[in-house]
Amino acid sequence: MAGSEANISNPNNSTNLIDGSFLASKSLAKFGVDHMFGVVGIPVTSLASCAVSLGIRFIAFHNEQSAGYAASAYGYLTGRPGVLLTVSGPGCVHGLAGLSNAMANAWPMILISGSCDQKDFGRGDFQELDQIAAVKPFCKFSVKAKDVREIPTCVAQVLDLAISGRPGGCYLDIPSDVLHQTVPKSEAEQLLLLADKFRKGEEITSFPIDKIQEAVSLLRHSERPLIVCGKGAAYARAEGALKKLVESTGIPFLPTPMGKGLLPDNHELAATAARSLAIGKCDVALVVGARLNWLLHFGEPPKWSKDVKFILVDVSKEEIELRKPYLGLVGDAKRVLELINREIKDDPFCLGKSHPWKEAISYKAKENVSKMEAQLARDIVPFNFLTPMRIIRDAILAFSSPAPILVSEGANTMDVGRAVLIQTEPRTRLDAGTWGTMGVGLGYCIAAAVACPGRLVVAVEGDSGFGFSAMEVETLVRYQLPVVVIIFNNGGVYGGDRRSAEEIDGPYKHDPAPTSFVPSAGYHILIEAFGGKGYLVGTPEELKSAISESFLAQKPAVINVTIDPYAGAESGRMQHKN
């Protein structure tokens, strides 16, 4: 939705005035923003240019949706709001994809959009839209700066509220006329100081010790305790406290998909490979930074025991009230776990290695892993999903520290990857998340590369998932980001044309199936058009060679992996069968 913008303001001119674009950029820089994502055009090009001049790195995308997904993931990875900048009207609407994704996943993000002149609103102005009304269902707070002097306070508000309580998305609307209004530099400095003075600090609340004691008592007297950890615990940097709790008590743990890596997936107390047994038989479940939503079967039978007692740790009081656990602990995951550890320290307990519960989970996990490894050991050509996934897994595990960040997107590709790929460090897995969002892949890759410099980023994508944001491979090349995109190309959604003869009928029966793409599409050639490296592979040797070369180079690359179109199956909600 970008357009050209003339007369870009020069903040270094000889006058003592600065405009709204510069003041907005100055506010963002002063309040800690160092990266922005977006697509520029009327009326925000000057704002982006000013931001760059003030030391903010602006990552320019082709599409606001991908930029928004990048901003949302950046918030998760850094713990600071990711910022998306868009033009007015349709640019703002496109940005709602990222804003709503941030809300669904409880990640801090800011959407800043320009809007039409206030005096022309309601008259059919260029890209006119009531953007405050449009964003309302998708964010926790929205505000419009109606005058240039309101900008610093508005910027401070959205940045603070995005991370307070349950993190989420906030929206700032800056009309075109406000961006062009001017204010004396001396007054601008006073406005910035005043906004900073009244910013919300971190809220430190006292925690009722009796509830901590009750949680410890439940765990201590449980016969089959389980600790479930989610991406909320990863966001809270709770891995140290979680490790101490798990290893001091000997309680098995089960990560949600994006909780993987809080403790290594191959940890001896990991229950991932015995998931059905763990959740079906546990009698007390300490759930930390994870919601009892569809990903955890709502905490209900038949997946869970009807008698299980949930101890739910969540930063949101409303979430606790919604789920009605046996015991709710409202607070930051890291802090609550530290308090639990402190309480246990005075009277420690630990499940021994021969404890029946630990033995049952260990036995089942080893049994399931053995079955999976037997399938993975075979080299199947044409490729199924397992053979290339094993090769990718082994290459990632062999990579030197720090571990690569994995971005996983697709149907079969993501489902198989979740079971096969191993996370050993926290916040190294990004996937479709709470909302099951497709199209996040390249945006997440770019966010990970800029948020975590020094790490290789590896995307394992289905061809359908890749297609949502494929043009952003040019963005990878333009910024020379260390991202390797591995595409499982099976010719369409779930595997191309899978219709039975009876389904092929009607006046358009000769059209391609709704699930099919062009067979043997040359996705690797796309990145080569922009100067990146592309690989086409169809055998284990070719895939190993491409991975070795691209991982070593740590430059933008696409590996196009040809998959048997009949290897996959229709995939909806994630099914856990182990």
UniProtKB/TrEMBL annotation:
GO cellular component: peroxisome
GO terms assigned for molecular function: 2-hydroxyacyl-CoA lyase activity; magnesium ion binding; thiamine pyrophosphate binding
Domain spans labelled Thiamine pyrophosphate enzyme central: 212-338
UniProt keyword list: Lyase, Magnesium, Metal-binding, Pyruvate, Thiamine pyrophosphate
InterPro entries given in the database record: DHS-like_NAD/FAD-binding_dom, HACL1-like, THDP-binding, Thiamin_PyroP_enz_cen_dom, Thiamin_PyroP_enz_TPP-bd_dom, TPP-bd_CS, TPP_enzyme_TPP-bd
Superkingdom per UniProt: Eukaryota
Residues in Thiamine pyrophosphate enzyme N-terminal TPP-binding domain copies: 24-133
CDD domains in UniProt: TPP_BZL_OCoD_HPCL (cd02004), TPP_PYR_POX_like (cd07035)
Catalysed reaction equations from the record: an (R)-2-hydroxy-long-chain-fatty acyl-CoA = a long-chain fatty aldehyde + formyl-CoA; a 2-hydroxy-3-methyl fatty acyl-CoA = a 2-methyl-branched fatty aldehyde + formyl-CoA
GO biological process terms held by the UniProt record: fatty acid alpha-oxidation
NCBIfam families noted in UniProt: PRK09259.1 (NF006721)
Family that this chain belongs to: Belongs to the TPP enzyme family.
Protein function: Catalyzes a carbon-carbon cleavage reaction; cleaves a 2-hydroxy-3-methylacyl-CoA into formyl-CoA and a 2-methyl-branched fatty aldehyde.
Subunit annotation: Homotetramer.
Name assigned to this protein: 2-hydroxyacyl-CoA lyase
Species the sequence originates in: Quillaja saponaria
